Amino acid sequence: MPRTKRAKLVSLTKISKKTREHKNVLLSEVQQNAEKWKYCWLFEVGAMRNAHLKTVRKLWKDSARIFFGRGAVMAKALGTTVEEEHRMGLHKLAQQIKGQVGLFFTDSEPQEVIEWFDDFKQADFARTGNRATRTVILPAGPVMRVHSDPPEPFPHNEDPQLRKLGLTTSMKRGVPTLENAHRVCDKGKILTSEQAQLLKLVGEKMVEFKVGLLARWDAASGEVVQVEGRSTAIERDDDEVENEDEEMSE
């Protein structure tokens, strides 16, 4: 009789050892990159989405290295005091590592980096707890998917889901139809789970992924320069960063 996989014992000692080794590898990688590149930027992210951060990694893969997540490991790697800093001046950057921030190592000149991140923005769907950036009202008539080009009505088999999310629909010619306009959300109000799901279904994007540059370390001088006026107004989505610890050095 084959052995069951249920009730399988897992050694916590092995897990702790793996986690410790993983942290040591990441710490070493951060230090190696601090030795390799001319600049290290500290950044934060507005409307964090793993997919968009991976796009940034891909676009900069030949001219930069990005670390995101595990702030304590990054700070330790750089050194938070003059005595512990890995290279001159890095402690001034390490002391600013708080919350969900990242490190961006590159040889590209500061103005090029600033202009690139100023231009890179990706619209995305809001999530539960985000604040509505505009009022959305679905007009009476067929319920439309606005993200389609051209917009198209929902198919009949999605009517139960629309009703579950609060729409009072009836079927007309096989299309979910509203007899009266339906207010999905109001500008400035916190979105509920149902509102966020409905906005995604109809294709209304309300948040914007963007990178806010906070500070820059210069390897040649050891100076850390604060970047004024480019911090993002962040709406945090904690569930989206849960895997970044494992991917922080992609």
How does this structure look, described?
By secondary structure, the protein is an alpha+beta fold. It is built from eight helices and 13 strands. Helix 1 crosses helix 3 (71-78). It is elongated, with a radius of gyration of 23 Å. Mean pLDDT is 87; it is low at 238-247.
What's the β-strand tally?
Answer: 13
Q: Can you summarize the main beta sheet?
A: 6 strands, antiparallel
N to C succession of SSEs: HEHEHHEHEEEEEHEEEHEEH
Determine the fraction of residues in helical runs and give it as a percent range.
25-40%
Gyration radius, to the nearest Å?
23 Å
Key features of this structure:
250 residues; alpha+beta; 6-stranded antiparallel beta sheet; 3-stranded antiparallel beta sheet; 8 helices
Summarize the structure.
The protein has eight helices and 13 strands.
Helix and strand layout, with pairings?
Blueprint: H1 12-36, E1 39-46, H2 50-59, E2 64-68, H3 71-78, H4 90-94, E3 101-106, H5 110-119, E4 121-124, E5 136-138, E6 141-142, E7 144-145, E8 152-153, H6 159-164, E9 169-172, E10 175-178, E11 182-185, H7 193-202, E12 207-218, E13 224-226, H8 244-247
Antiparallel strand pairs: 1-3, 1-12, 2-3, 4-12, 5-11, 6-10, 7-8, 9-10, 12-13
Helix pairs in contact: 1-3
